[in-house]
Amino acid sequence: MSEIILSMRDVHKHFMGVHALKGVDFELRNGEIHALVGENGAGKSTLMKVLTGIYERDSGEILLEGQLFHPHDPKQALRAGVGIIHQELNMMEHLTVAQNLFIGRESMHKGGLFLNDKAQVRRSRALFEHLNMNIDPSEILGRLTVGKQQMVEIAKAVSHSLKVLVLDEPTAALTETEIDELFTIMRDLASRGVAMIYISHRMDEIGRITDRVTVLRDGKYVGMNDTGSVTKEDIISMMVGRVIYEKPKASSNIPADSPVVLEVNNLMAGKMVEDVSFTLKRGEILGFAGLMGSGRTETARAIFGADEIQGGIIKIKGRSVRINSPMDAISHGIGYLSEDRKRFGLATELSVVENSLMASYEKYETGMFIHSKRIRKITSTYAKKLNIKTPSIDQLLKNLSGGNQQKVVISKWLINDADILIFDEPTRGIDVGTKSEVYTLMNRLVKQGKSIIMISSELPEVLRMSDRIVVMCEGKITGELDIQGASQEKIMGFATMRESI
């Protein structure tokens, strides 16, 4: 059995009255890949930020290689051999790969006045060869795929003689091929003695890549097991404290005579939306499936007016409408939950109440005055309905977990009373417990007469939630399935079909 390289004991952390970490214990062995899991808000990221010096602990003890370790900032942690790869990469896309690798540690010509780009490229190439990474050090970083950019960030961390590497949701934006490449690199690093802490909500990946798994719940340590000795259901039960069922939907409950609320005919928008046609009924969840780059998000953005429409007809409740901007879409009762909620759905520096009312302020204005009491009342009402965990509706959104941020986006469109909701990757980056809450909410909304387009890359999610499934490939609809006859195999068949039906 490998020796313990990292030990965290009885770690506590408070934020503005919230007890985020309640005596958490965690240990890591040399060369192991250790999963750290839990619902959003369970304390995973907070614990790792304490470890890497982003946050100061309130109390508790950290030992690195048997010595007390209490870094005061990430640079100090990195010098000691502890690094973190955040879910949102923190790199300079306009610089070359080599320049990104050695920012602050540049190779200089003699005299120290000028950069030695050739020497820096040589250092980078040697590092990539050592790590078996096929990346050109001279390439501009922004031209690489997200997967390759992530490899660069890992290489940068490893170049600091890394002992412990934290990977926070590293596969969230990767293709299956890129995930396989990442796992190959991780196994290689583990064989070289680097210990890794792997944070992910994807249960299948935890089984594929990790040796042990530690579960946190509500800021507390729940338990630790060898990954091979526990089932997915065991881990989920430990995370949420209850059993969650993920069975596919057996049949649609939409009446045959349910009216069509959205009709899209021959929609054209850029290179990724070619002659797309479909209908959405009242009370229906219409699933959109397809591989990355299939055109699903581009179709949603065109319908919402975020991207220019070059051709086609959109009808809402039987009437043709022109949608040239998101404001046009909103005025026609359409709400859009973007797959990238932090870039397009939220203002994280503003409060819960300000984000919740972002699309509806004009409804609460009289001349120059805003009805603040009504605004606060409606926000509080939906915060309770959606079980948004926040100390106050005045809390800044950046201080909420990813799952609770997602609920705030949903509340924004419910407060605006949108009839047609487009959910683009609604559960990306959120835990199984919050996923279940989002699913329950979606089912409740369609029972109330709302209609939902749900774009998802997770086929079990598509099969669990959809009444019908539309499949896209390379900008075209290549298949449509009723839920009764749908399967992952059929969906993937259409998703890899180049010709439309």
Q: How big is the Rg?
A: 24 Å
The CATH homologous superfamily of the largest domain: P-loop containing nucleotide triphosphate hydrolases
Q: Give the tally of structural domains.
A: 2
Class derived from helix and strand content: alpha/beta
Q: Write out the strand line-up for the largest beta sheet, numbering strands in chain order.
A: 6-7-8-3-9-10
Itemize the secondary structure elements and their pairings.
Elements: E1 4-15, E2 18-29, E3 33-37, H1 44-51, E4 59-64, E5 67-68, H2 74-79, E6 82-85, H3 97-101, H4 117-130, H5 146-158, E7 164-168, H6 176-191, E8 195-199, H7 203-209, E9 212-217, E10 220-226, H8 232-240, E11 260-269, E12 273-281, E13 285-289, H9 296-303, E14 311-316, E15 319-321, H10 326-331, E16 334-337, H11 341-345, H12 352-356, E17 365-366, E18 369-370, H13 372-385, H14 402-415, E19 420-424, H15 432-447, E20 451-455, H16 459-465, E21 468-473, E22 476-482, H17 488-495
Parallel strand pairs: 3-8, 3-9, 6-7, 7-8, 13-20, 13-21, 16-19, 19-20
Antiparallel strand pairs: 1-2, 1-4, 4-5, 9-10, 11-12, 11-14, 14-15, 17-18, 21-22
